[in-house]
Amino acid sequence: MDSVLFIGAGRMGGLMAARLADSGVPLAVADLSEEALAPFRARGLPVATRAADLPGAIVVTMLPTDRHVRDALLGEGGACTGRPREIVVDMSTAAPASTIALSADLGGQGVMVLDAPVSGGMAGARAGTLTAMVGGAPEAFARLRPLLGLMCGEVIHVGLVGSGHVIKALNNYLSAATLWSATEALIVGERLGLDPAVMLKVWSAGSGKSHATEVKLPNHVLTGTYDFGQTLELFCKDISIAVDLARRADAETPTLDTLLAFWSAARDRLGGQEDITAIARLIGASGAAAGSILAARPPSEG
Q: Are residues 92 and 69 in contact, defined by beta-carbon separation less than 8 angstroms?
């Protein structure tokens, strides 16, 4: 079994790395946060804040941006500046052009690169039901398919390196559209006297079905927890990647452009570290009836 160095033990990455450890994979974990490393240190696994200090033929990254990925791999103390590596799998959501450039740089060292971003949120990471969309050489994909299957319920090879990040950015564009529109619809129906839970049940059984109606709204908005596990800052970054892809494709995307404006305004109003489901508080706050479930916690000023 291949040894793995997992870089990025944050909210998503920590859950994914734990699944590998539970499956008996020879695992080392790197993260700048000692708090994030603590659970893995308690299990007796090799951990460090410098990736170069840790073993692992396979390197998996789960980090906020492509800049973080590049620094973790090629910066001072980076994973690919020390011990020999064979394959890098970037499971972050990153810009495809950056991944292609990274693949060219690491290819000169004999290291293959797969981009394997995932969809499914923290619940999917915890349950091992994520969907991975993988770009890269077929032989590298075939070798790592079983490893990815320990973290994901669906593992789909989508094309050359960078293709996974293209599809993930477009996936998050669709996610942004359905969450925003479904939240608006829910608020309209609630103000007309309908039960939000009943509306979601009906929509999820019909043509209005989406991840927003089935998961995000019932589990993270109606509960008042607003804890799906994705920040507005990173979500806007993902939508911006999709906008850039549209420009590169010379495609007119007025819906995508408008969504970026909506989501960016929500980030600026609520704060970048707020959960994406917190837009329900923002949308519902305008003229909302007293006691509304969706507007019970209005956004703070400032």
A: yes
Question: What burial class does residue 76 get, using C-beta atoms within 10 Å of its C-beta: 0-12 exposed, 13-18 middle, 19+ buried?
Answer: exposed
- Give per-residue pLDDT as tens, 225-255: 999 989 999 999 999 999 999 999 999 999 9
Contacts of 198 (CB under 8 A, 6+ apart): none
Summarised one tens digit per residue, pLDDT across range 264-294 is: 999 999 999 999 999 999 998 765 433 344 5
Spatial separation of the C-alpha atoms in residues 66 and 68, rounded to whole Å: 5
Give the torsion through C-alpha atoms of 233, 276, 162, 97, to 10 deg: -30
Token couple for 156: 């789909």
| pLDDT band at residue 82 under the 50/70/90 scheme | confident
Residue type, 93: T
Q: Evaluate whether 217 touches 190 at the Cβ level (below 8 Å).
A: no
pLDDT digits (tens, 9 = 90+) for 120-150: 989 999 999 999 999 999 999 999 999 999 9
Residues annotated as catalytic are: 168
The answer to whether 197 and 218 are in contact (CB under 8 A) is yes
Judging by beta carbons within 10 Å of its beta carbon (0-12, 13-18, 19+), is residue 261 exposed, middle or buried? exposed
Cβ(106)–Cβ(131) under 8 Å?
no
Q: Which residues pair with 133 in a beta bridge?
A: 156
Structure tokens of 7? 């870089």
Residue 49 has pLDDT above 60, yes or no: yes
Give 115's contacts (C-beta < 8 A, 6+ positions apart): 89, 90, 94, 96, 99, 134, 135, 136, 161, 162, 163, 164, 165
- Distance of alpha carbon 199 from the chain centroid: 28
Q: How far apart are CA 221 and CA 213, in angstroms?
A: 10
Confidence grade of residue 83 (pLDDT, cut at 50, 70, 90): confident
CA distances from 135 to 101, 114, 121, 224 (A): 14, 6, 20, 37
